[in-house]
Specification:
The chain has 113 residues and is mostly beta strands. It is globular, with a radius of gyration of 13 Å. It has strands at 2-6, 17-24, 33-38, 45-50, 57-59, 67-72, 77-82, 91-97, 107-109.
Length: 113
């Protein structure tokens, strides 16, 4: 299977952006998904997780209250809605199928004025 992210781009501090991750090649509805990010010169870090039950989610401390992960099983797509973005949110954002080696190619999100 594979994952393809989209929706990245330059955004001003305080702005919002929604990332999408389209999946293919495996049973989407039974899988859990995660968003990670990697800032320049830093290690990749977990941002959010959504389990196969839509209501069960988990967030990093930096994402909680500002980011929302969701999924649409009919469209086989996972979303990351980001609000009140800060310069420290600047990173390449990756979608990951949990408990697998399946990663997307990443989408860049620069936060700058």
């Amino acid at each position: 299977g594979h994952l393809v992210e989209s929706g990245g781009g330059l955004v001003q501090p305080g702005g919002s952006l929604t990332l999408s991750c389209v999946a293919a090649g495996f049973t989407f509805s039974g899988a859990a998904f995660q968003w990670f990010r990697q800032a320049p010169g830093k290690e990749r870090e977990h941002v959010a997780t959504i389990y196969s039950t839509h209501t069960l989610t988990d967030y990093s401390a930096s994402a909680k209250g500002r980011f929302t992960i969701s999924r649409d099983n009919r469209k086989e797509t996972v979303y990351l809605q980001m609000t009140n973005l800060k310069p420290e949110d600047t990173a390449v954002y990756y979608c990951h199928r949990m408990n697998s080696a399946t990663w997307g190619q990443g989408t860049q999100v620069p936060v700058a004025s």
